[in-house]
Amino acid sequence: MTGIFRCDPGCQAVTVIGTTHSVFATIAALAMIFGMFAIGPRMHNDSRWRGYVSYTLATVVVTMVVSALFAADVFEEWHGALQRISMGLGLVWAEVMAFRLLRLSSA
Prior knowledge:
This protein has a domain at 33-105. Helix 1 packs antiparallel against helix 2. With 107 residues, the chain is an all-alpha fold. The chain contains three helices and no strands.
């Protein structure tokens, strides 16, 4: 949905379209963090996934810190970079998990 509803100039939610973009981006970011947080501890019980627990929990922590910096506008000149890093970390995590699932399915 964030691709359909474009960000307003400067990514300030001024219009309905910009606000919709921001709402869906926030939902996506929170869902990604909560998803990693929920899956991480469950991996500990499966020996095939145990090696990914630390990576998952570290990704959650770093993503939460970077997201908090983004949301707080602490480093205004880095605002766009912080946004992309916070989303990128979760997307890279999802790819790592997908490749692991692929390897497990062909074993």
